[in-house]
Amino acid sequence: MAQDIRELFKDDKVAHENMPENHQDRFLQKLDKALPEAKKSNFGWMQMAASVVVLLGLSFGAYKYFQTEPLAEIVTTNTIETKTLGDISPGLKKVEDYYLASINLQLSKIKYTPETKDLFDGYLEQLNELDEEYKLLSQDLTESGPSELTVNALIDNLKFRLNLLYRLKSQLEALKTSELNNEETKQSI
């Protein structure tokens, strides 16, 4: 059964045989049915467009990142860091931390109401003035170095702020008790 293909061509049997009519057309039709021609889509273009958009986005992000970094270096090199009490000694840092924690605690305990708005705003204005003075004293400490007068002034500033908050708290309590007494007298009448 198996024949060598070379022997078939030696006899010239295959060379002289003609193909049936329309053989090539029928073959192409069957081929088209079995393997239909793929439709061309714009999906390839969409992939390329998406790649370009992603590339542009990454380029813009990198440009912005590297552009802002030198500006940050300029800002940090030109600003002078002010010293605080904690920079001088660990003991003074404990004092400063104690007063700042106490001030923040007292501020968190104070209840702000519309009735106490004027009183509260007046005290906050004084606290802001003391805070500005503290910043100036810290700047002086940085520029001229630690001195007994500057350190004492910084500690006194913290004491004044804490005492101011104690006074505000006591005045708010006195105001609250006087309002309660007024309400009791109105109810008893």
Structure notes:
By secondary structure, this protein is mainly α. Helices cover 78% and strands 0% of the residues. The chain has two domains: 1-79, no CATH class; 85-188, no CATH class. The longest helix is centred in the last third of the chain and has 41 residues, at 148-188. The radius of gyration is 45 Å and the shape is elongated. The N and C termini lie far apart (130 Å).
In helices, the fraction of residues equals over 70%
β-sheet strand percentage: under 5%
Number of strands: 0
Quaternary state reads single chain
| Individual helix count | 7
Q: Tell me the Rg in angstroms.
A: 45 Å
Concise summary:
This protein is mainly alpha-helical and 189 residues long.
